[in-house]
Amino acid sequence: MPPSESMEPWRVKKNCRVCDSSHLIKYFDFGKMPLVDSFIGAGEPGDLRIPLEVMFCPACAHSQLSAVVDPKVLFSDYLYHSSVSRTFSRHCNSMARDLKKLFSGRNNLKCLDIASNDGCLLIEFQKEGYQVIGVDPAENLCRLAEENGVPSIAAFWGMDAAKKVVQRLGKLDVITATNVFAHVDDLHGFLEAVYAALDDEGILVIEFPYMRNLIKYNEFDTIYHEHLSYFLIKPLLTLFHQQGMKLMNLAEFDIHGGSVRVFVSKESNKKIPVNEKAIQHFLELEQKEGLHTLAPYVNLQKNAQKIREALRERLRELRALGKKIAAYGASAKGNTFINYCRLDLNDIGFIIDDTPHKQGKLYAGTHIPVVPQAWLRQEKPDYVLILAWNFASEIISKSPEYQTQGGKYIIAIPELKII
Ligand code: TYD
Ligand code: ZN
To answer: How far apart are CA 64 and CA 201, in angstroms?
Structure first.
């Protein structure tokens, strides 16, 4: 544990970031892990390792990491470009339309996207006639967004950014935060800034991977330093209430392995009725599955161990038979997986990824090289471990000849299978 005056780029979070309780119970300990999304280029220094542990708060049922890595280390030159996925663009467009309906088709709606990336979501909102603005800490992505015609401010979200946005556009009808909420250390500060920028009848839309699915499908590999929180609905009710806001409605959808979209408004907003039935439905499911207690989380660690043992055993057998093994999808979760399973270059020769800026780099921690798809034909691995299991069917359909020539795939989550 680094002392507070240390130069280490991380610190320990001792209290629950939702309810502030100091009684937190550790249930998943990965040991020290590399930053899974930091690829290493030629001549760059080696990698940092930081403890990765998940804690449960019995008071409010929130799960969070014990370590908070300096966001500047994690996000200021982020490699992730959301526009790469067509599924995601469609998803954003339907969100823009659905929200417009909530405002009775009103024109001139103003939308802010927090962590706007390359402007992918806001482009879809522009198509539906919204005035838009993005805020994102990565300057390279803001430049890209501006080139795409999306006005963007390079900043971390907070009161300063909120003031700038309101100066430029006035108060917002819609604020979106898709795939950023789990990254936020100060949730209360984040929502205070949202409250300041949101019109009194405005709507905040947050999307996040749902902890219920992580538990149900053993998605332990989605645990990494960027994901500070793992959300259920119950603790969110507490959080919104403390900020003078309320949950109005919510829905589950299948992106990033099972996410939830919540609609939030100021408590004073009586324009749109609260969908009590839907909220109750989610709370009951969580309760029925024991998710407000420690037991299922302890079980997750056990299941992860079983997957690790089964995979290591299988790889040992395959290696003994002289089989060549590679992987596909140099995702962040894939790197958690590789490190947790203690795999290295002896197990996995290379990782194929179709993202050009990942190719030619090394996976942090194990230094397994990331290579283009051509390696599948040139090197002819006997087995390919699909690390980006959320895209398994897309990846498999890209190379039909690999399977017809006898190549096999391994998928390890939710359980080990070979196809
Ligand atoms: P992603 O699902 O974004 O996961 P994470 O958030 O854990 O990083 O990662 C998917 C990775 O898989 C990404 O690096 C792109 C890669 N990929 C391919 O190389 N080819 C494909 O056809 C698809 C769908 C993804
Ligand atoms: Zn709590």
So the answer is: 31
* Chain CA centroid to CA 384, Å: 24
Res 151 pLDDT > 60: yes
Write the CA distances from 294 to 27, 54, 291, integer angstroms.
8, 12, 7
Does 3 reside within a domain?
no
For residue 336, the ligand 1 atom closest to its alpha carbon is 7
Residue 12 covered by a domain: no
Is 22 inside a domain boundary? no
Domain count across the chain = 2
Q: Cα of 329 to ligand 1 centre, how many Å?
A: 5
Instruction: Identify whether the C-beta of residue 129 lies closer than 8 Å to the C-beta of residue 107.
Output: yes
Report whether 28 contacts 53 (CB < 8 A): yes
Q: Is the pLDDT of residue 107 over 90?
A: no
Distance 331 CA to ligand 1 centre (A): 5
Residue 415 pLDDT class (50, 70, 90 cuts): very high
Token pair, residue 113, equals 């996207």
- Rounded CA separation 385/383 (Å): 7
Residue 254: which domain range? Answer: 82-293
In ligand 1, the atom with minimum distance to the C-alpha of 224 is: 7
Q: Give the Å distances, CA to CA, from 198 to 171, 173, 229, 266.
A: 5, 6, 24, 9
Q: Chain-wide mean pLDDT for the chain?
A: 93
Q: Is the pLDDT of residue 83 over 70?
A: no
Q: Which distant-in-sequence residues (6+ apart) come within 8 Å of 408 by Cβ?
A: 382, 383, 384, 418, 419
Residue with token string 């490699």? 79
Asked if residue 226 has its Cβ within 6 Å of ligand 1, the reply is: no
Q: Count of CB atoms within 10 A of residue 4's CB? A: 8
Q: Would you say residue 20 lies in a domain?
A: no
Q: Per the structure block, which two tokens stand in for 103? A: 């405002």
Q: Is residue 234's pLDDT more than 90?
A: yes
φ, ψ of residue 148 to 5 degrees: the values are -85, 5
* Distance separating the N- and C-terminal Cα atoms of the chain: 43
Q: How far apart are CA 215 and CA 303, in angstroms?
A: 10
Q: Looking up tokens 């069917």, which residue turns up?
A: 393
Task: Enter the pTM of the model.
Answer: 0.93
The contacts of residue 277 (CB under 8 Å, 6+ apart) are none
Pairing of strands 259-266, 245-253: antiparallel
DSSP 368: P
Same domain, 349 and 225: no
